[in-house]
Hints:
The protein is α/β, with parallel strands linked by helices. The chain has nine helices and five strands, in the order αββαβααββααααα.
Amino acid sequence: MRSPRSSARADPQAPPEQLDLLWTPPVIGLLAGVDEAGRGPLAGPVVAAAVILDDLQPIAGLNDSKRLTARARERLFDEIRAKALCCCIAEASVEEIDRLNILHATMLAMKRAVDGLRLKPALVQVDGNRVPPHLGVAAQAIVKGDAKVQAISAASILAKVHRDRLCDALHARYPHHGFESHKGYPTPEHLAALGEHGVTPAHRRSFAPVRLALAEGRVAVPVELATSPDVLSTAAAADGLSLA
């Protein structure tokens, strides 16, 4: 009996069959993972990190920073800094966010992180669907890369912990705004604090809730200035009072 394969006759007019071969060539050289933290908040800089891991010093527990507890992130932050071949954390400021827009500011922070690496990578893999322009090195965007690529996971942890620490410092200056808990994101608590306590210098003026609070004349005073004689005198003068 002839096999089905041997009995089949190819149509000489048919185009050759093409196979989908999903193959990614191996990276020859160093791989850097890049991720950001802080695109959505109403306040604070956007932070990016770039990490080149050391294959000889594996780090257990790397994952998307949002899937980890704060304690796990803090532990991994120190381990990544100790074991990575090199890493860099960079920022784009509130002023740059307002001037450039949040997308371009994020790309700028990512480029600064890559440029700040002590070693030059052969390939940069970035979490998301786009890569920063003008990196001067091959780059690849990977959707949900922070859960797929260890170097990107490490970068997401560095960026997240660094930005959370910045928000803790903001909380010390503006305790009524709740930065320690919401980290600048537009939660109901944060929006209520904007209305009650006003806009701080750390808020992004180009974001709608902040613009609205400014239009209503709501400006915050840092806690260290709240009880100073000059501030009290200014406030009293505005109310037609005397502190003498």
